[in-house]
Amino acid sequence: MKEQPLHSMTDEPADETILLERIASGDERAFAALYQRYWSKVFTYLLRLTKSRETAEELLSEIFTRLWVNRAAASGIGNVDAFLSKVTYNRAIDFFRFAAKEKKIQALVTLELNRHPSQTNDGYLADKEYKALLRQAIRQLPPQRQRVFTLSREQGLTHEEIARQLNMSPQTVKKTMSNART
Question: What are phi and psi of 155, to 5 degrees?
Answer without folding.
Answer: -105, -5
